[in-house]
Write a structure and sequence with these properties.
The complex is a heterodimer of chains A (84) and B (135). Chain A has 84 residues and is an all-alpha fold. Chain A is built from 3 helices and no strands. The chains are: A mainly alpha (84), B mainly beta (135).
């Protein structure tokens, strides 16, 4: 992961933590401040770095949904998809 | 008779005014441009065509950058996404695809040389034409 991608991920983690601490949502002014910071980072990235962020988001943000899916299967008595 | 200009659906996320229209101003989340970032005026305060402008995403909101894309499209943005047909830009503004990534990014630019203040005012005049996209 390059420094630019790491910076994006760190900022994303800050945003998600702040949202969680606020009970789920931030004011649009605060979200706008985050947009400004993300935008400046995004502009400085190469296409490959932007793709790396997208891959990270696909893997990290999809994880909770996958876990929920597995829980449902276990509750219904099925073998979890990811059990080896 | 002149040929009709092809239209492109343009997407961008904005902070909103109480009336539901995009909030105007010089920020990445507003209807406007940041001088020196989105477009750079010359010494007399004028901005030129084909030198950049307000960023938009053409065609499909799935191509918005992730910080503007809502979770339903795999992003982490929370501001509402708006859309506008490029033929609603008026005579002072024009849409130009970004040559580096024409399917994902473009600019709403001044159609002719004008003062930055006039360009910002022209952008603000489009506020009522932007409509929220349910995503």
């Amino acid at each position: 992961m390059t420094t630019a991608v790491e910076n994006y991920v760190e900022l994303l983690e800050s945003q998600l933590l702040e949202r969680a601490a606020a009970g789920g949502g931030l004011s649009q002014d605060r979200e706008g401040e985050y947009v400004e910071q993300f935008d400046l980072l995004w502009r400085g990235m190469s296409p490959q770095e932007q793709d790396a962020v997208e891959v990270y988001l696909t893997s990290e943000l999809a994880a909770p949904e996958d876990l929920a899916f597995i829980d449902v299967e276990v509750a219904e008595g099925h073998v979890p998809r990811r059990a080896a | 008779m002149t040929a009709a200009k092809p239209t492109t659906k343009l997407f961008r996320a904005f902070k909103t005014q109480p009336n539901g229209q995009p909030l105007c101003g010089a920020a990445g989340s507003m209807l406007g441009v940041r001088p020196g970032v989105d477009i750079t005026p010359d010494g007399s305060g004028q901005v030129q065509p084909v030198t950049g402008g307000m960023s938009v995403t053409p065609g499909d909101p799935v191509y918005l950058p992730p910080f503007l894309r809502p979770a339903s499209l795999g992003g982490h943005g929370t501001l509402p996404v708006f859309a506008l047909d490029s033929n609603a830009l008026g005579e002072k503004l024009t849409y130009r695809p970004d040559p580096a990534k024409p399917t994902k990014h473009g600019f709403v630019e001044p159609a002719i040389a004008m003062l930055l203040t006039a360009y910002s005012a022209a952008l603000a005049e489009t506020a009522a034409a932007w409509k929220v996209v349910p995503l």
